[in-house]
Amino acid sequence: MAQPEATNWIFGDKVWIKFQDTVLQIGDPLPIWSMEASASVSDSNGTLQFYTDGVKTWNRMGEVISIRDIELDDTIDKQSITQGVLILPSLTEAGIYCIFGIGEYAKVDMNLNAGMGGMVFTPSWQPYGELDLEEYEFGYGEKSTAVRHGNGIDWWIIQPRLQWVYPGNYDSTIFSFLLSEYGIRLIHRKIVNTRTPGLTQIYGELVISSRGDLLAIPSHRSLSVYTFDRCKGEVGEEIYYNDTLSGLYGCAFSPNGSYLYVTINPTLGDENILYQISLEKDQFGNNPITEIYHRPENGVYDYGQLELGPDGKIYMSTAYQSYPNDRFSPINMNLSIIIKPDVFGFACDFDTLSVYLNVPFTASPIWSTTPSVL
Question: How far is Cα 239 from Cα 89, in angstroms, rounded to an integer?
């Protein structure tokens, strides 16, 4: 989290957030439209290099440098994968970055096009290394994250996949891929019983703690937290399980790993709710759960993903439910913030709709026609 490679966030509908000396600033709108999948990367000085929605890749000037060779109908599917893309720097080649999707990847060379970057192989993405994808890509998943190896050099890429895609299945396989100077290799896979039907496991953010020792896996009907070994890439014991919360989607650890924050949205579950879960047991042996904020369901907006920023605060998005759309309002044009995420309960200081995203209106504002939804 202390590295400047993560200081620029490009996501959603033209949104550019940048952290200058950990102070949040809103940049001028950049071309992008993605429901969920997005990733961006900066160099060691904090200068934006490029960004992607899993289909298109743009340079820092907002110019398209690659479009994937996929069917038009697949474009929305790629953009609607919860964690559809992540970007990692090459370990051996200066200026080379890898974009990882689910089971496939691409390379960007920032030495091309006078330093503005270009795709190494385009327009098709490549499967991970020499893996037999028929063996390793059974099932389906929308979760993906990465963490530094314990050696401080290599990377672990972690992706759960369903064992079988049918409602009665309760198993999910968590894959740990190692990115090293020798390429991408599958090192570990662990089958876990989520105690929730297969298709309900797809959605929600997979997150790893800042120390890299805890892995949280939310789904439609359950939440599990496992230990993780950064040296071996192994998923360990399940230290927390909850099946009382329905419709989990957004997820983020507090900086010190003591608390886990999750969002529920009405498209998947009940109403828009933000919870704080203590991973430290109280004197009664329970993990306290605090309902930090509850916005009654109005059939219009969904709480979205949670992201821990370089400033140690956690940011939450709110999306308009139907898409694609050009609906703009104060609700989906602002982020909410958990200002003190390492503090228990309401003292975490949740500030709702406090970061204006500076996206220009492209249609009549929603409140001009239906003010009741606000």
Answer: 32
